[in-house]
Amino acid sequence: MYGTIRRYKVSNSRAFSERVNAEFINIVRKVPGFVSYVAIDEGNGNWASVGLFTTAEGVTRSDQLAAEWVAKACADLVSGPPEITKGPVTVK
């Protein structure tokens, strides 16, 4: 299993979460190897997502789709690119 954590700086966490729930979750669920996707409102404009996939390719595709979707659907809420951490899951 492989995971990706994307950390964003957002101007409105609630609005960003609502858009993710309404749109992006349906996109990421279609990525081959999708296992799960959750998000955390860290406060102070910090927002993070955690995606799990059965393959490293799923992680890469998820990151690509997220970048495309944010640029198209949420550019008004996000400041700069996300900080991304990804790799194999080592504890289950």
Question: Layout of helices and strands, plus pairs?
Answer:
Elements: E1 2-9, H1 13-28, E2 34-43, E3 46-53, H2 56-73, E4 83-88
Antiparallel strand pairs: 1-3, 1-4, 2-3
Helix pairs in contact: 1-2
Q: Kindly report the CATH topology.
A: Alpha-Beta Plaits
The percent of residues in helical segments reads: 25-40%
The strand order across the widest sheet is 2-3-1-4
What oligomeric assembly is this protein in? single chain
How far apart are the termini? 9 Å
CATH architecture assignment: 2-Layer Sandwich
What is the alpha-carbon Rg in Å?
A: 12 Å
Tell me the total number of β-strands.
4
User: Which spans have pLDDT < 50 for at least 5 consecutive residues?
Assistant: none
Verbal overview:
The chain has helices at 13-28, 56-73; strands at residues 2-9, 34-43, 46-53, 83-88. A 4-stranded antiparallel beta sheet has the order 2-3-1-4. The radius of gyration is 12 Å and the shape is globular. The protein has 2 helices and 4 strands. Strand 2 (34-43) and strand 3 form a beta hairpin. It has 92 residues and is of the alpha+beta class. Helix 1 (13-28) packs across helix 2. It has a single domain (2-88), classed as Alpha-Beta Plaits, CATH 3.30.70.100.
Summary, kept brief:
This protein has two helices and four strands. By secondary structure, it is of the alpha+beta class.
Task: Based on the model shown, name its key terms.
92 residues, alpha+beta, Alpha-Beta Plaits, 2 helices, globular
